[in-house]
Specification:
The complex is a heterodimer of chains A (401) and B (235). With 401 residues, chain A is an alpha+beta fold. Chain A has 14 helices and twelve strands. With 235 residues, chain B is α/β, with parallel strands linked by helices. In chain B, helix 3 packs across helix 4, helix 3 packs parallel to helix 5 and helix 5 runs parallel beside helix 6. The longest helix of chain B has 16 residues. Classes of the chains: A alpha+beta (401), B alpha/beta (235).
């Protein structure tokens, strides 16, 4: 293949600008779709990663079972933590928390927030870190101290996002008052639909249980397995310990629910990657269709230039020369279309982010996939018309008008 | 085979097959010997097989049966594209009635094309192409496209193209058929000149005035050569 052949191919494409542009359009749309889709997919993956970044993969959460008619006495309780820790084999640590929604006000600002009554070790277990101030202690818990540590959303809504101004202030929760002693970093993490760490006000467990929260209180245990390898064993062990602690007979259902953080993250990730695969397949189909478009155009081109092919053969052009000449045209077509498509795709990404309100991540992978796909399409769909051209009978070709 | 024989055809048959399998014979047992340096003219009735014979000589058509020797080598049985392309490229130059130049390329690029297929480097083939164009009086038309040239000039470009790989044989299919008398005469002068410089020329024509440029005329009728040394009737 010589530079001259490349030049001839480009000249042939330029000779029919509108047709060239139209056949390129399919590739442009296909490639930009692939880039947008891969970007959206990567964005969704990142959303999942962000959402759960503070959730330890070894954590297991124990909740009350839903809609079960169980006696109050057999429900999960803070005592379960002690039972678990004295019987465990694969569990590192456990903590209990109660939560409920209450009307909270500071000055003129007022809203419904989750009050999260947690033991002091909850902060460490759930990876919650201070921005400013301090966390409450075991002593505070024992004394039922009226102190509160605020999640980032609370600081945003009650203190205009200024953590410093919150420290030492008094907030009203229901009829009671609490002193703010610390504020937490934003986590972005939610645990299912029932809890967002950022939207909660943390107070000592005993304070919450005895004097703040009334009816409608939810209880939750957070348990950490020793390590990732024993998470399944820990999961099983936890179920057995709790059944025994709650005196459940073999024919009774569990009166609790266990959520494995790893499986929650896994499910979210697989949803995101299923979406990516789905969208990528759609984009691949678009590219495939554009390939058929290229093939169509190349057939027309070959038909139009039949006489030229006959002349080329008569003056000594080999089949491989003619094949290469037409193949080059479709490859150039798809490469240029691919490059434009990459540009369009990169331009679309920020628009998707802005108007569709989705997280998108421009990835090199997307560009590589899109570009190589477009070149493959050009070669694959350009090959058959080029092969037909190269195999034309020279005399028949010369006779055509 | 004597040294001076360039082409030798023996008992050539060529048929076309219709889609329903019926055989249509075009050439029916044809013998022809062309000597080195000869200027041979092929005349004949239309449908007599003139063009088919020229296409067979130009290795554009496979034979149905018979033998084709060029310089003592049997090339009638060659079917592989690489060898056929080599023969068309290096040993034969083709000139058509309708010039058949690439309309989007300049005279220079058109002339250099066979050398491109031969694989010669750009500067070499374009230098050579320019030299040949000059020798045919087209030095100020080198960078013109076919649409900017007269018919006679286009045919001279086509002749230049047939010469670029310095072949021994020039095959011309009615080279003056699309030209006016004056341009036709100029083109024939070029052929005569090339013949004098040693090129073997085989030309199809139906015009007696053009046929007079040849050394020998063969006359075809119904797929056979009915006269190996046809004399034009005196006017």
């Amino acid at each position: 293949m010589s530079f001259e052949m490349l030049r001839m191919a480009i000249e042939a494409l330029l000779a029919n600008k509108i047709r060239t542009l139209l056949s390129m359009l399919g590739i442009i749309i296909g490639v930009s779709t692939v880039i947008a889709v891969v970007g959206i997919g990567a964005g969704a993956q990142q959303d999942v990663a962000d959402q759960y970044k503070n959730l330890s993969v070894t954590s297991i959460i124990v909740l009350e079972s839903r809609g079960q008619s169980v006696t109050t006495a057999s429900k999960i309780s803070a005592e379960d933590v002690n039972t678990i820790m004295s019987n465990e084999q694969y569990i590192d640590t456990a903590t209990a928390a109660v939560s409920g929604d209450m009307q909270v006000s500071y000055g003129r600002a007022s809203n419904q927030f989750t009050i999260f009554g947690a033991l002091p070790n909850q902060f460490e277990i759930s990876n919650l870190n201070l921005v400013i101030g301090e966390l409450y202690t075991e002593e505070d818990n024992d004394n039922r101290a009226r102190v509160a540590v605020l999640g980032s959303t609370i600081v945003e809504e009650l203190f205009d996002g200024d953590p410093e101004s919150a420290i030492g202030e008094t907030i009203n929760v229901g009829a009671k008052t609490l002193e703010v002693i610390g504020t937490l970093e934003e986590t972005g993490t939610t645990m299912g639909q029932f809890l967002s760490y950022d939207d909660s006000i943390y107070i000592p467990y005993s304070t919450a249980e005895k004097s703040i929260l009334g009816t409608g209180t939810r209880i939750m245990l957070t348990v950490l397995a020793d390590n990732l390898d024993v998470i399944d064993l820990a999961f099983e062990e936890l179920g057995l310990i709790l059944r025994e602690a709650h005196n459940l007979k073999a024919d009774k259902d569990d009166d609790f629910r266990l959520l494995n953080a790893g499986s929650i993250i896994g499910a979210a990730q697989s949803t995101a990657s299923t979406m990516t695969i789905l969208l990528t397949s759609v984009a691949a189909i678009v590219l495939l269709v554009s390939g058929v478009g290229i093939m169509n155009v190349m057939f027309v081109t070959v038909a139009e230039r039949t006489k030229e092919i006959g002349v080329a053969k008569a003056i000594g052009g080999k089949q491989s020369d003619i094949l290469m000449q037409f193949l080059l045209e479709s490859i150039i077509l798809s490469i240029i279309g691919g490059v434009i498509g990459i540009g369009v795709g990169q331009a679309i990404l920020p628009l998707v982010e802005k108007f569709a309100n989705m997280t998108v991540v421009a990835s090199v992978l997307g560009v590589v996939i899109a570009f190589s796909f477009s070149v493959i399409v050009g070669i694959f769909f350009g090959f058959y018309p080029a092969l037909k051209a190269s195999r034309l009978d020279p005399v028949d070709a010369l006779r055509s008008e | 085979m004597p040294e001076n024989i360039l082409i030798h055809l023996e008992n050539i048959h060529k048929s076309y097959f219709l889609s329903n399998g019926i055989e249509v014979p075009i050439l029916k047992g044809l013998d022809l010997t062309v000597n080195k340096g000869e200027f041979l003219v092929i005349m004949g009735e239309s449908g007599g097989g003139k063009s088919t014979l020229l296409n067979i000589l130009g290795c554009l058509h496979p034979l149905t049966s018979g033998s084709y020797h060029m310089k003592g080598e049997n090339i009638g049985t060659v079917r592989d594209d690489y060898t056929l392309a080599f023969i068309r490229n290096k040993l034969i130059g083709f000139v058509f009635q309708q010039f058949n130049l690439l309309s989007k390329s300049t005279a220079l690029k058109n002339v250099a094309l066979p050398a491109l297929y031969a694989g010669s480097p750009k500067h070499e083939r374009e230098e050579n192409a320019a030299k040949i164009l000059k020798s045919l009086g087209l030095e100020d038309r080198i960078h013109h496209k076919p649409t900017e040239l007269s018919g006679g000039q286009q045919q001279r470009v086509a002749i230049a193209r047939s010469l670029v790989n310095d072949p021994e044989i020039i095959l011309a299919d009615e080279p003056t058929g699309a030209l006016d008398t004056k341009s036709g005469k100029e083109v024939m002068k070029i052929f005569k000149d090339l013949n004098e410089k040693g090129k073997t020329i085989i030309m199809v024509t139906h015009e007696p005035a053009i046929a007079t440029y040849g050394d020998r005329i063969i006359f075809l009728r119904d797929g056979q050569i009915i006269d190996q040394d046809y004399k034009l009737p005196k006017l």
